[in-house]
Amino acid sequence: MLFHVEMTVNIPHDLPSQVANELKATERERALELQRSGKWRHLWRMAGRYANVSVFDVSGPSELHEILSALPLFPFMAIKVTPLCRHPSAIREDDT
Amino acid sequence: MLFHVEMTVNIPHDLPSQVANELKATERERALELQRSGKWRHLWRMAGRYANVSVFDVSGPSELHEILSALPLFPFMAIKVTPLCRHPSAIREDDT
Amino acid sequence: MLFHVEMTVNIPHDLPSQVANELKATERERALELQRSGKWRHLWRMAGRYANVSVFDVSGPSELHEILSALPLFPFMAIKVTPLCRHPSAIREDDT
Amino acid sequence: MLFHVEMTVNIPHDLPSQVANELKATERERALELQRSGKWRHLWRMAGRYANVSVFDVSGPSELHEILSALPLFPFMAIKVTPLCRHPSAIREDDT
Amino acid sequence: MLFHVEMTVNIPHDLPSQVANELKATERERALELQRSGKWRHLWRMAGRYANVSVFDVSGPSELHEILSALPLFPFMAIKVTPLCRHPSAIREDDT
Amino acid sequence: MLFHVEMTVNIPHDLPSQVANELKATERERALELQRSGKWRHLWRMAGRYANVSVFDVSGPSELHEILSALPLFPFMAIKVTPLCRHPSAIREDDT
Amino acid sequence: MLFHVEMTVNIPHDLPSQVANELKATERERALELQRSGKWRHLWRMAGRYANVSVFDVSGPSELHEILSALPLFPFMAIKVTPLCRHPSAIREDDT
Amino acid sequence: MLFHVEMTVNIPHDLPSQVANELKATERERALELQRSGKWRHLWRMAGRYANVSVFDVSGPSELHEILSALPLFPFMAIKVTPLCRHPSAIREDDT
Amino acid sequence: MLFHVEMTVNIPHDLPSQVANELKATERERALELQRSGKWRHLWRMAGRYANVSVFDVSGPSELHEILSALPLFPFMAIKVTPLCRHPSAIREDDT
Amino acid sequence: MLFHVEMTVNIPHDLPSQVANELKATERERALELQRSGKWRHLWRMAGRYANVSVFDVSGPSELHEILSALPLFPFMAIKVTPLCRHPSAIREDDT
Asked: Which residues of D touch A75 (CB under 8 A)?
């Protein structure tokens, strides 16, 4: 089932840049992996902001939380979750 | 190019129900048409609300406005538009 | 799976009171029925407000939306949905 | 009597991780204890956030404050309290 | 136990003035009665607004809700409830 | 005349605890003194929060500011002031 | 003593224009009178809005409420009151 | 001098459409006239909303208010005004 | 022309107190000077807050910005600017 | 196509001033360059705030993001993006 997730990243300026870079690199690895597995179905950048809009396809809130809370940047993100369902006028097969 | 659009519908309770029903039917026709054309790429219902999350693929803000402002329910919707771009970690072809 | 739902009712003062009363009576019937079925697991009144806090146990966002959007007072409610999952420190069997 | 409590945890990134870990371990111990005593009746994780939704069954605001203000993570939590009462359409015995 | 309550009154301009006046007169009667009984312990006007700040002394959220929801102006009020408890530095006997 | 004051305390976690403790002890002394003098008429804790609701009886905004800005925790408090006046339906002598 | 008051006028579009005009005319008379008496010390229009910023010089919150609640447009105004006091760096005699 | 103005139009659905159309037509005439005079320097539509972003070049807040408050749709617009000045890094001649 | 300005000061607790004191002393000097010149026409303290309400009389937004951005505490202030104009019902000569 | 962008700068007070100055100097260079290229079409200072209102003319959200995220002060700015389109009543050639 689908969940709409907005993530806004806010890395404190006094976090050592090496730490930040490692977190970002691992975050990227994890994002690629989760997309390949089909769990992280869509991933877009919001123009002009260090933030993304995503759609996850998971078995439920529990799996969603496991995935999000394990992201390396989780401690530095404000996250907003919205459960989605099929729109009665939707025609696209995979918008479910 | 892609735009993320949230639409929240708020039909006044004193609008005659026949008028409301006609608006909704036409809205649905228009939504199907725009999805078939590829302009309205994604359309999801937010669970528990008379609202949707959508992604439009249009030639720019002008076409987006033409489409949205011509929707039959436009006068009764609060609309929030966010321009999207490709995320550096995205892998899906059509998330651009 | 569990969803936390806050519903705030706002019935327009110019809705005929007979219509309002019928809506409320049907709403009550539906609430009893859904609780008996186990779908509407918890239902509390927020003190001092025409609003409730609820927990639904449904198969996913789709079923949740079906239930909520079919409530007689749905057109007059502001609804906020939050997906829940088991807390790592929870001990109660049915908080899952 | 019942109180609905939302707790959002925000541990400063420059708090030494050993201190943070000890706080979290003690918090967990306290949460288990309070649940076993029946005071902390429900405890759910909000999916995707370091936050919980809880229901406390206490003798009143004073006991609620004693409990919450003594939680190890209290200095790092934003807490929102809502007093609950029985909903006229509730059927569950222990939703009171 | 004590609850801090803010009530903001918003009477629709198209409510017939006779109806409004009767509601206000009954509201006043009820307020006097509840104060005499000791349930409505404090009642202040917020300067410049059709709103009050009150402190109720009731047996719990249930009694508070019964009282507030039975006020004649309840359908036209926005109400905010905050549970209070004794402050460790308070000296006044009846601030409990 | 009366002013309703909400104070929310937010002590930075990196303030040395000895400094914080001295501030709190002096704050308490000052609160007791001001209550005894009758200036700080009511003082309640908001359940679950490091915050209080107070009513001050002072000669005007100037005296109120002198008192509040001299509180030891003033630099760490968010303060909201609301001028009160007698409610036309109030019966308590000292709610003026 | 001084109070800073922001008034935003919002006259419902379905109020008969004759009623509205009479209210505005009386409001103007009352504003002139209160300014002449010295109670309404300053009165400015916020550019681009049907709103004003004012400073009242009254004996306290009670007199302020009497004045504001008796304004003909009071039922159609959102009012925000802020108590003022002399700034330690002010030099103007009448800013007290 | 320049003022940044955001106008959001909200025409009540029960305003007769003939009235609304006349207001819109006059509004358009006035907008053209003010642009030709140079007072209304920029005028853009916000995509997806019945709202505009504008820059006015006027002699001060007074002239700005005269212009805005005389717009036919003024009673149905929420308006936000921000005074602008030349940015130290601006190069465009007419951004002053 | 007149601008209404609200300044809220927020000095970080870890700014050395000597630095803070020098900033405040220079701020005071500058405030006195600007008041004497007539540019800073009114200056009031908001009771209970480290904040002021001011009215500036300047040649336009540019001069206003020069003045405000040169204040020693500018980096530690949240500033809200509202352009004012003469109210049609104002009688005071210098409220223009 | 055009995008309206508001940037609010918030440089942490504990960032070494040399670092801050270098960032500002480079930011200025980049702003000049982008204006000369025509991408950064308008740039205004909001009076009284360390913030600007800008209009960018770019090929789409992707180019906009590239530009904004490469600004030296990007990590210290809150940015709000609004897509613009031609207003039906606009007359200025380059407001498109």
From this structure: 11, 13, 50
> Which residues of H lie closer than 8 Å to J, measured between beta carbons?
2, 4, 27-28, 31-32, 35-36, 41-48, 52-53, 55, 82-92, 95
Q: Contact at 8 Å (CB) between J4 and H51?
A: no
pTM, rounded to two decimals: 0.96
Chain J residue with the nearest C-alpha to that of I12 = J13
Cross-chain Cβ contact J65/A50 below 8 Å = no
Q: E22, E80 in Cβ contact below 8 A?
A: no
Within chain C, residue ranges assigned H as helices are 17-36, 61-69
pLDDT at residue F94, as a whole number = 78
Instruction: Domain G2-83: give its CATH code.
Output: 3.30.70.1060
SS3 sequence of chain J: CEEEEEEEECCCCCCCHHHHHHHHHHHHHHHHHHHHCCCEEEEEEECCCCEEEEEEECCCHHHHHHHHHCCCCHHHEEEEEEEEEECCCCCCCCCC
- Domain spans in chain A, listed from the N-terminal domain onward: 2-83
Three-state SS at B34: helix
CA C53/CA C41 separation, integer angstroms: 11
Which amino acid, I83? P
Residue I21 in tokens: 């004191």
pLDDT, tens digit (0-9, with 9 covering 90-100), for F16-46: 999 999 999 999 999 999 999 999 999 999 9
The amino acid sitting at E43 is L
ipTM of the complex: 0.96
Count of Cβ atoms closer than 10 Å to residue D4 Cβ = 21
Chain J touching partners, 3 or more CB pairs below 8 A: A, B, H, I
Task: Give me the residues paired with residue F5 across strands.
Answer: F54, F81
